[in-house]
Design goal:
Blueprint (H helix, E strand, L loop, with lengths): L1 H7 L2 H10 L4 H8 L7 H21 L11 H8 L6 H22 L9 H7 L6 H10 E3 L2 E2 L5 H26 L1 H4 L8 E3 L2 E7 L8 E6 L5 E6 H34 L1 H26 L6 E3 L4 E6 L12 E5 L5 E5 L6 H16 L11 E3 L3 E5 L12 H15 L4 E5 L8 H17 L3 E6 L2 H9 L3 E9 L4 E8 L7 H7 L4 H10 L2 H85 L4 H26 L20 E4 L4 E5 L8 E6 L2 E6 L3 E3 L3 H18 L5 E3 L5 H17 L4 E5 L6 H12 L3 E6 L9 E6 L1
Parallel strand pairs: 7-11, 10-14, 10-15, 12-13, 13-14, 22-23
Antiparallel strand pairs: 1-2, 3-4, 4-6, 5-6, 8-9, 15-16, 17-18, 17-21, 18-19, 19-20, 23-25, 24-25
Helix pairs in contact: 2-3, 2-12, 3-12, 4-12, 5-11, 5-12, 6-8, 6-12, 9-11, 15-16, 19-20, 22-23
Length: 792
């Protein structure tokens, strides 16, 4: 019954499709041996094998398996001292070449070491011998010819044959061209008989032409005679051809012996390449159906996310979501005919078989299947005239076999359970069968039209209804499977849409028990409510997505505006700093001149000069203070110790924006943050608390002092004469000061020397938190002796 169930679920068709992806006949044979497994670890291995096949094909393209063929017969002949045919030797060379190329394909140029563990383990066992490959290819031209250069002796023999043949052609052409002989010939031509050159002589002139008769025409009027003058020459060619044949046999025997010596290795290669072809076929098949590797369990749990039946055209198949075996072990699917119930049932069964065979599934990530001891299915109308079985009897025969074979690890599928007989009795039997399986906790899915089974699912623990949608307005199914909601047959609605008189429909309704009518009406209301809710949910999701896009767009624009304004401020500060530096230089020159003048002045003038000098110094200090009066020194403004709470000022790291918390944290550790006019939900891990304004003010004077100290930092540092450790300490302190001084670019002088200092500085700069990039100086900047550093 297990094999019959596989056939019913069309697992055999999947195997044939899979076989079409194998490159070789051996690979196809291996595919056709594929079967399901009940061993969880074994299935996991097969799934990983397929995953590696998919990954390597995506990364490196199609594997180079061309030329790999069955060589068992050839290598065995070589191993016992026989001669392998030219075709056989070429096949052996092709297989060695395929083995070498596949080995390189798997083992070389991988992104990560050990990324294809299973495939690499297989390929490590492949034997390669490029010398044998090239020797065969150099000697054998095709299936009927070997090269003249196969051996010096063969080349010599063939050259002599060519010379003798040319001599014969010249001689016989002379004979035919002779005026004496021409009058005896039927035609002025030369032809071949039994590999001998002959001329057509009229029968009556036989005695006039000396030679050996090899043939005559059908009428007997023409004799084909080999002239005596070339008989000996032709005999010599025959001897040379015998020698050629012996030399060819010797060469082939030598090549065959080479193959015989590596016979065991080549047979091992054949097994490995066959397995690789099988794995690559699984990978190609998975890619062709856009499949994913399923999660695996052995507790009977199935979860299919957007599953697509692989035998239905991928352009028209409707994906289904289905789950079974966790919160409930029995699923009863209802709905109208042609609504997709059977396809949903087959998808559940076929996915289980494919997963247990190590094949990936055409679904979305998150799909999970269980490893069962067996999958049993009774699907389709198997009415048998020969066995005098009705539809009901045929189904019941299958069900009897299934009930005898199933165990607690089985998965059972029934299509239209209890159909084909009296509805009351059929429904009772169906409930009894499902309840028996349910009591044994056997995972089961069944389709039905019976209302009794819908009620059974509603009133029984671990049993649930499912339904396939049907659009009554268009009289067409949607093929969408819904779990948790029983379906309607919609017979009355469909009949009404098709034009059946309302009186007839009302009469039909009156013949049905009142509670059944009410039940069907309730189902209709539930279905309408579900469709309405899903439509609203879709609309809400769409609006939410649009809102998120607009929100992201607004934040991006705000971030860009802030970056632009910050850039303008930085540029203005840079210009102001240049003006201050220039003013300071001029002030220093003026003070210097005043000092010189003070030597020749009286006391009153000296006092006045000192007052002016003091005034200049104070003005310079005031300008420098004003330059930084509106700047906030950001370092050490963060509070990593106090827990976050409602009202705290924070920095949102991902947005690089400041705001404040306006709500309490929820269960997922998310909180609402106000950034300007925007309110957004942010994860706790993305927030950094900023110290309070009072704490900032306490540091303002210190910050200003630091700014004043660093404002006149030299844009160049000279590290020459220091060892590497001393130089890096000096450089680290200098970079901090230069960065706080808002310098965009500085120069580090390290000299050329042995290059140790330059290399150490280069490596240090690559990891420094303030450095955006660094480069060696240009010719006019100091060349290799200077590194130019740009700050972030």
């Amino acid at each position: 019954m297990k094999n019959k169930s596989k056939s019913v679920l069309e697992f055999d068709k999947i195997i044939e499709i899979l076989a079409s992806f194998a490159e070789t006949s051996l690979g196809k044979e291996e595919v056709r041996k594929l079967d399901t497994s009940s061993d969880l670890e074994g299935v996991k291995f097969k799934q990983k094998q397929t995953a590696e096949g998919v990954s390597i094909i995506i990364e490196k393209g199609a594997p180079p398996l061309g030329g790999f063929t069955q060589v068992k017969e050839y290598v065995k002949r070589g191993s016992v001292g026989g001669i392998i045919s030219l075709r056989g030797l070429l096949n052996c060379a092709d297989s060695l070449r395929a083995a070498r190329l596949v080995k390189n394909y798997v083992l070389l140029n991988n992104k990560e070491e050990g990324s294809y563990e299973i495939l690499e383990d297989l390929c490590n066992g492949i034997y390669t011998n490029k010398d044998i490959e090239e020797r065969i290819y150099n000697i054998i031209i095709n299936e009927e010819e070997i090269a003249d250069d196969a051996s010096p002796e063969l080349k010599r023999i063939r050259k002599e044959i060519q010379i003798k043949q040319n001599s014969i052609k010249n001689k016989i052409n002379q004979i035919v061209g002779s005026s004496t002989i021409q009058k005896y010939l039927q035609e002025n031509i030369v032809t071949m008989r039994n590999d001998r050159y002959v001329i057509p002589v009229r029968k009556e002139y036989r005695s006039m032409v000396k030679g050996i008769i090899h043939d005559q025409s059908s009428t007997g009027s023409t004799l084909f005679i080999e002239p005596i003058a070339i008989v000996e020459m032709t005999n010599e060619i025959s001897d040379l051809k015998m020698a050629e044949k012996k030399e060819v046999e010797r060469i082939l025997l030598e090549l065959s012996a080479m193959i015989g010596e590596v016979a065991d290795d080549m047979l091992t290669n054949q097994d490995i390449l066959k397995e690789l072809d099988f794995v690559f076929a699984k990978g190609k098949f998975a890619i062709s159906i856009n499949a994913v590797e399923p999660k695996l369990n052995e507790r009977g749990y199935i979860r299919i996310k957007k599953g697509r039946h692989p035998l239905i055209d991928k352009n028209v198949v409707v994906p289904i979501d289905a789950w079974l075996g966790d919160e409930f072990t029995t699923l009863i699917i209802t709905g109208p005919n042609t609504g997709g119930k059977t396809v949903s049932l087959k998808t559940l069964g076929l996915f289980s078989l494919m997963g247990m065979a190590g094949l990936h599934l055409p679904a979305e990530y998150g799909t999970e299947i269980s490893v069962f001891s067996a999958v049993y299915a009774d699907i389709g109308d198997e009415q048998s005239i020969e066995q005098s079985l009705s539809t009901f009897s045929s189904h019941m025969t299958n069900i009897v076999k299934i009930m005898k074979e199933v165990d607690e690890k089985s998965f059972v599928l029934f299509d239209e359970l209890g159909a084909g007989t009296d509805p009351t009795e059929g429904a009772a039997l169906a409930i009894a069968i499902l309840d028996t399986l349910h009591e044994r906790k056997i995972v089961t899915a069944a389709t039905t039209h019976y209302s009794e089974l819908k009620l059974y699912a509603l009133t029984t623990d671990d049993v649930i209804n499912g339904s396939v949608e049907f659009n009554v307005e268009t009289l067409s199914p949607t093929y969408k499977l819904s779990i948790g909601v029983p379906g309607k047959s919609n017979a009355f609605e469909i009949s009404r849409k098709l034009g059946l008189n309302q009186d007839i429909i009302d009469k039909a309704k009156r013949t049905i028990e009142t509670d059944k009518v009410e039940f069907e009406d309730a189902l209709k209301q539930i279905e309408e409510n579900r469709i309405y809710i899903e439509a609203k949910k879709t609309e809400i999701d769409r609006l939410n997505e649009e809102s998120q896009k607009k929100h992201s767009s607004f934040l991006a624009k705000e971030r860009k505006a802030l970056e632009k304004s910050e850039k303008m401020i930085n540029e203005a500060n840079y210009e102001a700093r240049k003006i201050v530096e220039s003013a300071k230089k001029e002030t220093a020159e003026i003070i210097k001149e005043l000092r010189k003048l003070s030597l020749d002045m009286d006391k009153d003038k000296v006092r006045r000069v000192n007052e002016l000098r003091q005034s200049l110094t104070e003005k310079t200090k005031e300008v420098e203070e004003n330059q930084y009066s509106d700047q906030i020194f950001e370092d050490d403004n963060y509070d990593d110790e106090t827990p976050l709470s409602n009202g705290d000022a924070v920095l949102v790291r991902s947005l690089n924006q400041k705001g404040h918390i306006i709500s309490e944290f929820d269960n997922s550790q998310n909180v609402m943050v106000q950034i300007g006019l925007i309110k957004t939900k942010v994860k706790k891990s993305d927030l950094v608390k900023i110290k309070s304004e009072d704490e900032k003010k306490q540091k303002t004077n210190t910050s200003r002092m630091v700014k004043l100290k660093t404002s006149s930092i030299n844009p160049t540092i000279d590290l020459r004469g220091l060892n590497l450790d001393e130089a890096l300490l000096e450089l680290d302190k200098y970079l901090d000061d230069a960065f706080m001084s808002n310098l965009n670019e500085v120069q580090v002088i390290h000299g050329k020397g042995t290059g140790v200092l330059r290399e150490g500085v280069t490596q240090f700069l690559k990891k420094h938190k303030h450095v955006k990039e660094s480069r060696l100086g240009s010719f006019n900047e100091g060349g290799d002796g200077v590194t130019v550093v740009t700050f972030k």
